[in-house]
Design brief:
single chain; 2 domains; 7 helices
Length: 337
């Protein structure tokens, strides 16, 4: 699905200044479209209001000025419930498996906002994740160029996704559950180091502003731009299926799709949301034979929210803490090989 293009605006002032000015244009209780018409009709000769009218006119459909907001100013962890499905095609027979998973308390860590710069593409940015994950995020591998515009972005890491099928023993593991359950895979450097800049199966993401505002002196700061925004993840997962545990060495690229109103992210997490696979097929290997040839392909996948997390769950972080001694022992064994 085609994504929204960046807005090309050059206006003076911070995002908060711009949004406050637009709010003054709209009379109380008047919708955005009506506010534009009222302003245009009653004060076409006032330069300040004319500038605001130009700005309102430049915000593309389906967005309005109320959708323009700054990113959160600091690093944080966000919790939500979720649903995923995956269609897997077995090599050889061509048989397909369609699996559905549900999760409570999926958690995602986001960095403080920063302005994208090519020189910082390899930089590690702090995100508040627990061990044995590394407390940083980076721009995901093979990130599309639309996420490389010089505007504000959050970098993210998936903390915990422990998704389960309702009618079978199938599970989808990302982040902590993967690292704890299969540390001999998650931390094996030669499995992932060839195809990515990281040497574990950590999953990274990005939320990238659609706006392109500049300060009055021509500079951009992390708080000059924010929502609306697009979002993308490069996911490494392990799927426990009836034919065995399957994992990917090539990142599964999941991108946020416009909602029913045609809009992308207006907050973090962007509930309601829907992420879709954009780089199928994804070769899948047996966890029991990680050096062998792929035995299946992930041909479609979708993940959407189940609303904000409302109750604690015993198998999700932080209520469940990973067995760090077991993970450390597996890491030591890998180093000794």
């Amino acid at each position: 699905m085609e994504q929204q293009k960046n807005w090309t605006l050059s206006v003076a002032g911070t995002l908060d200044d711009i949004r406050a000015a637009l709010a003054q244009v709209a009379p109380a209780g008047v919708g955005e479209g009506a506010a534009f018409r009222v302003t245009a009709a009653v004060a076409p000769e006032v330069p300040a209001l004319a500038q605001h009218r130009d700005l309102l006119a430049a915000i593309p459909t389906p967005y309005g000025w109320r959708d323009v907001a700054p990113f959160a100013p600091s690093a944080a962890v966000y919790f939500m419930d979720g649903y995923s499905n995956a269609r897997i095609r077995l090599r050889g027979s061509g048989e397909e498996l369609f699996l559905e998973f549900w999760d409570r308390n999926t958690s995602i860590a986001a960095s403080a906002p920063q302005v994208y710069e090519p020189a910082r593409e390899e930089s590690l940015v702090y995100t508040p994740v627990p061990p044995p994950l590394q407390a940083y995020a980076k721009l995901p591998e093979a990130t599309p160029d639309r996420y490389r515009q010089p505007t504000s972005q959050h970098l993210m890491q998936v903390v915990s996704m422990n998704m389960k099928a309702k009618d079978s023993g199938a599970r989808l593991l990302i982040g902590l559950p993967y690292a704890e359950g299969y540390p001999e895979l998650f931390f094996r450097k030669d499995l992932f180091g060839v195809t990515r800049r990281d040497t574990s199966a950590a999953s990274y993401g990005v939320v990238h502003s659609l706006t392109d505002f500049t300060e009055s002196n021509g500079d951009r700061t992390p708080h000059t731009n924010g929502y609306p925004a697009r979002s993308f993840f490069a996911i490494y997962h392990l799927i426990e299926t009836p034919i065995g545990a399957l994992f990917n060495k090539k990142a599964t690229q999941m991108e946020l799709q416009p909602g029913g109103d045609g809009k992308l992210a207006l907050k973090l997490p962007p509930i309601p949301f829907k992420y879709s696979l954009i780089n199928a097929p994804i070769p899948l290997h047996l966890a029991s034979d990680p050096d062998g040839e792929p035995v299946a392909d992930l041909v479609s996948a979708m993940h959407h929210d189940g609303g904000a997390a409302a109750v604690e769950t015993s198998d999700a972080w932080p209520w469940h803490r990973p067995d760090l001694e077991r993970v450390a022992a597996a890491q030591a064994a890998l180093r000794a090989e």
